[in-house]
Amino acid sequence: MHDAEPVVLPATARAGVLLVNLGSPASPEVADVRRYLRQFLSDPRVVDLPRWIWLPLLNCVILPSRAPKSAHAYSLVWTAEGAPLVAISARQALKLQARLGERFHVELAMRYGEPSIASGLEAMRSRGCQRVLLLSMFPQYSGATTGSVEAECARVLATMSSPPSLVVLPPWFEDAKYIAALAERANTAVSQRSVRHWVFSFHGLPARYVRNGDPYRDQCERTARALALRMQLGEKDWSLVFQSRFGPEAWLQPYADVFVPALAATHKRVAITMPGFTADCLETIEEIGLRLRDSFLEAGGEDLVVVPCVNDSDLLLEGLAGLVREGRGEA
C-alpha cells in the first residue's frame, strides 16, 4: 500500500487531504482523559495482547490509576486554545490548505478523540472529493501509529455509500524539508547557548514489535542520521533515545528517562529534540520539558535545552505540500 504509484487526477478534480495526528482528550478533566485513554489503549494495534486479558486489566486496573495522573499532567500543558497538539495541528492544516490552494480540500482528524477520522472523511465526501490523500503526521511508519490510522480509514470508508478512494502517502522520515525544519528549530533553540551533546528522542515502541518486522526503529535511526548530517554533528556529538514507555514489557532502548540523566555525569549542557513528534504535546512539554529536565538537573546537569517541535514551521509545511502534490500525481 505504501509503495503504490501516484494517482493522477484530472486537472479540474478537487482532491481531499486528510491530515491525521494522534489526538488529545476533550479536556484535562479525569472523565475526559479516561475516555480518551480507553479509546487509545483499546486499539489492538497499540496493545496487541489478547482482548480477554487486556480489556479487563485496562478497565479495572490501568484506567482507574492512570487517568487521574494523566489528567494532572494534561492540566499542566493545557492552553487557552485547548490541547496543544490539536491547536497546533489545526494551524498546520490551515497553512497546508493555503499552500495547496483550491484544487485541494484539507481536513484535520485525530486517530483518537475529536475531530474524528470519520467526520473528516464524511466532510470530504460531502464536498465531492472523489479521492482522499491520507497524510499521517507520524513521519516514521509503525503499525501502532500510521498503520492504525490506515485501518481506521478503511473501516470508516467501508461503512459509506459511494465512498471516496484512499491514497496513502508514504512515510516521510527523510524528507529534505522536514529535516531542514528540524535543524532550523534545533539551531534556533541553542543560539547563544553552549551545548556539549545532542539527544534525539523518539516515541518508544515495544521491542517485540520491531523484532516482528515493524520498520519503525530503522526509520527513526535514518531520521536521526539525516538530522545529524544536516546539523554537521559528529558521531560522538549525538545520541538516539526512546521515550514514553509504559508497562513491564521491554521497549526500544536506550530509555530517555534513564539515559539523559546519566549524561549529566559527563555532559553538563545537553540539548534534546524530538524529531518524531510533529506537534508539541503532553509527551514533549510535560514528559521531556518538565520531568526529564528536572531529572537531568537533579543528576548534576546544568542546562537541558528542550527544542520545540517543528509545529507549523514554514519549511515543514512546504515539504508536506510537496508530498501531497507528488501523491496526487502533479509535477
Q: Overview of this structure, please?
A:
The protein is α/β, with parallel strands linked by helices. Helices cover 46% and strands 14% of the residues. The protein is built from eleven helices and eight strands. It has helices spanning 30-41, 51-77, 84-100, 117-126, 146-158, 176-189, 207-211, 216-230, 256-263, 282-298, 314-328, and strands spanning 15-21, 104-110, 131-136, 165-168, 197-203, 238-243, 269-273, 303-306. Strands 2-1-3-4 form a four-stranded parallel beta sheet, with helices on both faces. Helix 10 (282-298) links the parallel strand 7 (269-273) and strand 8. Helix 1 (30-41) crosses helix 2 (51-77). The longest helix is centred in the first third of the chain and has 27 residues, at 51-77. The two termini are 21 Å apart. 41% of the residues are buried.
What is the helix content?
Answer: 40-55%
Outline the low-pLDDT stretches.
1-12
Q: State the total count of DSSP E strands.
A: 8
Tally of individual helices: 11
Radius of gyration: 20 Å
Q: What's the order of the H and E elements?
A: EHHHEHEHEHEHHEHEHEH
Biggest sheet details: 4 strands, parallel
Coarse shape: globular
Q: How do the strands of the widest beta sheet line up side by side?
A: 2-1-3-4
Mean pLDDT score: 94
Distance from N terminus to C terminus (CA atoms, Å) equals 21 Å
In terms of structural class, how would the helical and strand content be classed?
alpha/beta
Strand content: 5-15%
